[in-house]
Amino acid sequence: MTIIKSERELDLMRKAGKIVAECHQLVREIIRPGITTLEIDAVVEKTIREKGAIPSFINHHDFSYSICSAPNDVICHGFPDNQPLKEGDVITIDIGACYQGYHGDSGWTYAVGTVSEDIQMIMEHCERSLYLGIQEAVAGQRIGDIGYVIDHYAREHHYGNVYDFTGHGVGREIWEEPTVPHYGIRNKGARLKKGMVIAIEPMFTLGKTANYTEDDGWTVRTVDHSICVQYEHTVAITENGPEILTKL
Question: Is 77 within any annotated ligand binding site?
């Protein structure tokens, strides 16, 4: 069931989203060759807790970390570890914060040092597709409108568009209804209404989108080990259009 948020609830979600955005700002400042994702995880957890919130992902279905770490060919849900990041790597850091019972959720892809032109271009295009999808997040339109523009953009620029993992509603739970696919048909799917809050999170690959889950039961990689990037914002549907909650 899709949950409509009150103005009080939206205000709490704005605060949760701001904390997530501030964490990403810190990640942007510290990410470099030689840092480990466990070090990033520690910084993010400390920041979230200092701001009076709780990391959304810790203890969520037995996940043990404050970030999901997705380097290079990892699509999503990877564990942070002690492996130092290398020059030319690309990595998605997904962060969630729960403030007074309400969540903010945002994943962002970062270049580690200088990356190849192919990686730089797919990063720019995937981020662009996110904002095209957000432009469709208007009361009265449908979920399919969001997915349509993202998928059309991916195809236009010859990138793989991961269908197996989707956006979602956000609120008292980090993942709520409705499901928000990054593909779709215009004028199809659930109708968007004022007070809905959704996460839009396109994932593009440089190769195939077929994937597998590692033995840890979480980490998802591309079968052909092609690079995957992802950009995600939590977005509220308001009478004045889409409001990005996870952006400073």
Answer: yes
In tens, the pLDDT along 80-108 reads 999 999 999 999 999 999 999 999 999 99
Dihedral sign for Cα atoms in the order 101, 52, 167, 67: negative
**Is 157 among the annotated ligand-binding positions?**
no
> Burial, 102: exposed, middle or buried (Cβ in 10 Å; 0-12, 13-18, 19+)?
buried
Cα 166 from Cα 164, distance rounded (Å): 7
pTM: 0.97
Instruction: Tell me how far apart the alpha carbons of residues 227 and 72 are, in angstroms, rounded to a whole number.
Output: 5
Does the annotation list 61 as a binding residue? Answer: no
Give the N- to C-terminal CA distance of the chain in Å, as an integer.
30
Domains and CATH numbers, the chain: 7-244 (3.90.230.10)
